[in-house]
Amino acid sequence: MNYSVQHETRLRHLFDHRDTLVESRKVFAFDTAELNLFETVQRSEQFALRFPDPVIAIMLKGKKVMHLGQEQGFDFLPGQSVILNSHERMVIDFPEAEEANPTRCIALTLSSDLIQRTVERANDQFTRLDGASWSLDYCNYFLSNDDNLDALVRRLMYLYMEDVYGKKVLTQHGLEELVLRIMQTQARQMLLTTDSPNRHRLGEVLQFIRRNISENLSIDDLARRSYLSRPQFFRVFKQEMGITPVELVNKERLRYAKRILLESRDISQACFAAGFNSLSYFHRIFKKEERKTPMIWLEENR
């Protein structure tokens, strides 16, 4: 997640005075949610934490290893989020935290009433293509943030930390949008990882993209696969997935390109085999998605 110099300065100032080196905490309260900012500057293990309300944890800087229930520990990095139900216990390791490289994370607790109202409004106003209802899925808890979700988190941080005109209304709208975007992210990840995506009407589109990944894919072709007009396709796709059809195509091209990269170690081959028309565009999309260049990604995946 890319933060401005002002964000970084503000966060450093907040943690000038710490009570403890492990999970020093600053709290900003609101009617229906509470923003908790955590910073750690000392390596440690097995730090236990739980919240009385549903919580969305979002990594800002550094690395944690999260242990949830009986699940094996997993790396928790910037650009990722975890959503947990109320009172769910998390155990955290900080393998790299130090004074010069602090680990920072947000834990945003949401009231059940806020979540319920937002879910009900989504179901009233945004009917899903396959007839399923909108809901927060606490089993699908590990999320990769897109640019929209990252930008929203930055905006909420600003609203909580600064004296802003109309703060209450803006924060309430931002929290409702956050719940909706998380549901969209979960729907997208479920579609992309399911064994039988063609059971969903947009799954037919996904299967078509994967079968023709190296070809020039047009929006009209994709819309026909969903039996929708081009305008309907754009609207429904963005509503359900939270991204545009072009962004999905690029995600699938990158997924395929990374597989070719691991096999061939050849960036040009991976670029054109995945259907990208130029190396410069491939580099730009790769860095936007992975937050690193193809070369650095290759070096990290030897």
Describe this structure in words.
The protein is an alpha+beta fold. It has two domains: 1-193, Jelly Rolls (Sandwich); 197-300, Homeodomain-like (Arc Repressor Mutant, subunit A), CATH 1.10.10.60. It is 47% helix and 19% strand. It contains eleven helices and ten strands. The strands form two sheets. Strands 1-2-9-4-7-10 form a six-stranded antiparallel sheet. A four-stranded antiparallel sheet has the order 3-8-5-6, with no helix packed on it. Strand 5 and strand 6 (74-76) form a beta hairpin. Helix 8 packs antiparallel against helix 9. The longest helix is centred in the middle third of the chain and has 27 residues, at 167-193. The chain is globular, with a radius of gyration of 20 Å. The model has no long low-confidence stretch (mean pLDDT 86).
Number of domains: 2
- The CATH architecture assignment of the largest domain turns out to be Sandwich
How many β-strand stretches?
10
Helix count? 11
What best-fitting shape do the alpha-carbon axes yield?
Answer: globular
Cα-based radius of gyration, to the nearest Å: 20 Å
- What is the arithmetic mean of pLDDT? 86
**Remind me, CATH topology of the largest domain?**
Jelly Rolls
| Strand order across the largest sheet | 1-2-9-4-7-10
Order of helices and strands: HEEEEEEEEEHEHHHHHHHHH
Q: What is the CATH class name of the largest domain?
A: Mainly Beta
| Sheet having the most strands | 6 strands, antiparallel
Poorly predicted ranges (pLDDT <50, ≥5 residues)?
none
* Alpha-beta content class: alpha+beta
Helix percent reads 40-55%
